[in-house]
Amino acid sequence: MYTTRFLDVPPLDSVAGTVRLPGSKSISNRVLLLAGLCEGETVIDGLLASDDTEVMLQALAALGCTVERSGEAVCIRGIGGELPVREADLFLGNAGTAMRPLTAALAVLAAVHGGAFRLHGVARMHERPIGDLVDALRAIGCRIDYEAAPGYPPLRIGAAPSGLHALDAIRVRGDVSSQFLTALLLALPLATAGGSSARISVDGELISKPYVGMTLQLLERFGIAVERDGWQRFTIPANSQYRSPRTLRVEGDASSASYFIGAAAIAAGGQPLRIEGVGLDSMQGDIRFVDAARAMGAQVDGGAGWLEVRRGTLPLRPIDLDCKHLPDAAMTLAVLALFAEGTSRLTGIASWRVKETDRIAAMATELRRIGAAVETTDDSIAITPPAEWRAGAIKTYDDHRVAMCFALAAFSRCAGAAPALPVRILDPRCVGKTFPDFFEALFGVAAARPDDIPVLTIDGPTASGKGTLASAVAARLGYHLLDSGAVYRAAALAASRAGVDRDDEPALADLAARLDLRFGADGVWLGGDEVGESLRLEAIGSLASRISAWPRVRRALLDIQLAFHRLPGLVADGRDMGTVVFPVARLKVFLTASAAQRAERRYRQLISRGISANIDSLRADLEARDARDQSRSVSPSRPAPDALLLDNSALSIEDSVEQVLAAWQARTPFG
Ligand SMILES: O=C(O)C1=C[C@@H](OP(=O)(O)O)[C@@H](O)[C@H](O)C1
Ligand SMILES: C=C(OP(=O)(O)O)C(=O)O
User: Start and end of every Enolpyruvate transferase domain (predicted)?
Assistant: First the structure.
């Protein structure tokens, strides 16, 4: 997951390969709650791991359920209609699928058993309506109080003064959020133990119907057969009891699929993109996004648990669609509309106003930012593609879907934008709500022209602090990091292990070409050994400096270094990154510091690691290495003519990082 302040998605061209989707949020949280209310164990496979499911898991644990995680599976031992914990303060983030159903379940449980619960979330959750659900629960005797604004969380739930009643005439509004009805359907089986059935009538037109359909299907998996009369009346039979199916597999998220279906509908490449985890047999209503994408021109094949999507007609055909049945994936259509010939209109989206943000306002503002003409009403949005695309820094309003759907704007070349533009996604961490690795998944299947993948090089002499600077800059930009010195040191380590003479150029080059080197979050691996520490040894550093003078060694190690040039971008540090390896780098920094400063830094570094050192000999060694690096015949270490010279002798690390980032920013269209 990218936790940077922003993520620049370079202009993307094509998609190919296979993407495997994370589990459905809506299924995950329903199944978790049902498993929590059951007796005994339920093993859930393929559960979504994200902010929304994490708050549900934490809540279940706080309420006395046993939660055991092993790999992709989670085992829940439920409370079986009892209430072992009678008091809890539950933080539910911004998860509607946790807040609404838990409110109903705890209100009914507390009415039967007593208890005191507080339910709250992030600031936006306290602006998302829940009044209609609370009214319905109060009407049957539940005790729920608003802690702040009436109609909104935080809520306090307590014992019902006079028990539950009027179960046969429950009314709930259906036109604000279907989650109110879903919450009642999931919780009210708990109220039927005394022999009364529960009858719910929906006031107003029910929106997001497929989500209620999913609730009914999952209730059935847990032994509850709800009778229904259209989408207006629902009856939960008397003495309904949750019965665990014991094991259950969560399908991939159909709303998450929409970003990849969308990408494949517009991207070049001719290859289909395979999407696994969700297919045409899905129980999720948002799978109907496939119909909308086909109507716009995409070619979609599919079966049980898979889809294959390729570009059909481009420009896409504009669409005019009532989106009440697919509120979430409809946001992806709003961005696909940028690739259509003419104006698209999405209607029936009033519920967008009360979701993670006011999504109608947010989408209009951000679509306009990149050049579209947009008109909105209370429940619709009309989008006309840009006459001229603009590079935009997209505000995401802590809304995962804004972040994910605007990533598709990076395919602007496919809409004819010239030049093609990158898109900046502000606060990309918000995708953690439902798809923490969304951008990693996108970069795993998308391809960009090499020239469009940005590179920032930081070259400089030994101990100038370029490694520290490069890794800090890479972390701030969310880019890959190439420590090319480590590549040379790994070759030196391999040579010293294999006993190859430091002057035997052909043997060294041969060894370098076969280097089995991997940089990972778990360290630097040479063959089967983690060698991070060994690479820092002074002796290996000196040997690296010697063998790197051989042209054939440098050539052999070039491919390893070039392979780091991947989406979304690269920060490369070394001696010849800007001059030889990445001459097209957008920003080349040449970092220096006085020899005295560098010797001092190296000295402190060694002492802090418990290695004894002599500052004068360190300095002499540094100067000898500088002379060798500057005078070698191949790739001598010197600034590229267009390099930014930065002397950091008197700068803190933070100051150097800020200076480099400012220079970088000035080279982006977001400056
Ligand atoms: O029940 C559900 O799982 C959901 C229902 C929909 O909300 P509304 O019913 O509020 O439209 C949807 O937007 C949300 O992401 C998940
Ligand atoms: C509306 C959404 O979430 P929630 O479940 O919090 O309502 C969503 O995921 O788009």
Answer: 13-442
